[in-house]
Amino acid sequence: MGKCYAAIDIGSNAVRLLIKKAKDKVEEGEKPLSKALLLRVPLRLGFDVFTRNEVSEAKAGKLLRLMKAYRQLMKIYEVADYRACATSAMRDARNGKVILRDIVKQTGIDIEIIDGQEEARMIYNNHIECLEDRTGNYIYVDVGGGSTEVNLLSDGKLVFSRSYNIGTVRILTGGVKERAWQQLSEELSEATAGMESVNIIGSGGNINKLYRLATQKDKKQQRLPVASLQALYDELALLTPEQRMETYGMKADRADVIVPAAQIFLAVAAVVRAEYVHVPVIGLADGIIDSLYSLSS
């Protein structure tokens, strides 16, 4: 029987549990792991952290109860190994470490607060494996609730890596400073100066949703033209979150963050003059599990 591996991703908007199972037999060209379970609970920790610099007692209690539930699910699936990571909201929360100490004491789940570089590193390797064409210039952009991780790859080699305090929830709470936008623009302009045809590899639930909503896209290559993204942004920005929910069947915790997410991708696209966003459906949790599996193989 193949072993199961789990990843817990505590983001600024949602908290995910992903469990994958190793296949007993792997055919050539096939991936060695298959998804057994994916749960996403929108705790929205960033709405506390980016306005009051800490996680409220109520949300800390919910996070603890959720970790207890995830612990039981990992037992049911007989998970052989796991890794739990917290990102931008917990990095910024002044009571983040205290909350995580309480969680490990009560559940046994040891949660690491990882920095933006580590977060990006765990995901972008997987994205590159998904690309048929590994030559050329790509800027990997992972948009989260609290931060955006950017990695510039030229012919498959990492040449530039940064994390910016620009995220969807942070924008909605008014927590993004103008200097952060300037820094992103200046640094990306400098890093891509002289490069021809730089395109984006997009990561995060919002770009996946935007890709699904777009009418003009390249399904074979999993590409979303920037022009289509701009048109979709213009359409969505005119609507209230409630209207987006009604018109596009979005959940409440997607309907408010999807517009700032599109704004961030368009800002990057404008600086690097990208023509499209490549959208492989992979996130931090996939990166965590793949690294666990490779260490055990």
Give the topology.
Blueprint: E1 4-10, E2 15-22, E3 33-41, H1 45-52, H2 57-76, E4 79-86, H3 88-92, H4 96-107, E5 111-113, H5 116-130, E6 137-143, E7 148-154, E8 157-164, H6 168-172, H7 178-192, E9 198-203, H8 205-213, E10 223-225, H9 226-237, H10 241-248, H11 252-255, H12 258-272, E11 276-278, H13 284-296
Parallel strand pairs: 1-4, 4-5, 6-9, 9-11
Antiparallel strand pairs: 1-2, 2-3, 6-7, 7-8, 10-11
Strand order of the largest sheet: 8-7-6-9-11-10
**Oligomeric assembly:** single chain
What does the largest sheet look like? 6 strands, mixed
General form: globular
Structural class: alpha/beta
Low-pLDDT sequence parts: none
Count of runs of 4 or more consecutive helical residues: 13
Residue-averaged pLDDT: 91
Query: Nearest-angstrom radius of gyration?
Result: 19 Å
Describe the structure in brief.
The chain contains 13 helices and eleven strands. The radius of gyration is 19 Å and the shape is globular.
Account of the protein in words:
Helices cover 47% and strands 23% of the residues. The model has no long low-confidence stretch (mean pLDDT 91). Helix 5 (116-130) crosses helix 13, helix 8 (205-213) crosses helix 12 (258-272) and helix 9 (226-237) packs antiparallel against helix 12 (258-272). The chain has helices at residues 45-52, 57-76, 88-92, 96-107, 116-130, 168-172, 178-192, 205-213, 226-237, 241-248, 252-255, 258-272, 284-296; strands at 4-10, 15-22, 33-41, 79-86, 111-113, 137-143, 148-154, 157-164, 198-203, 223-225, 276-278. The strands form two sheets. The chain has a six-stranded mixed beta sheet with strand order 8-7-6-9-11-10, with helices on both faces. It is an alpha/beta fold and 297 residues long.
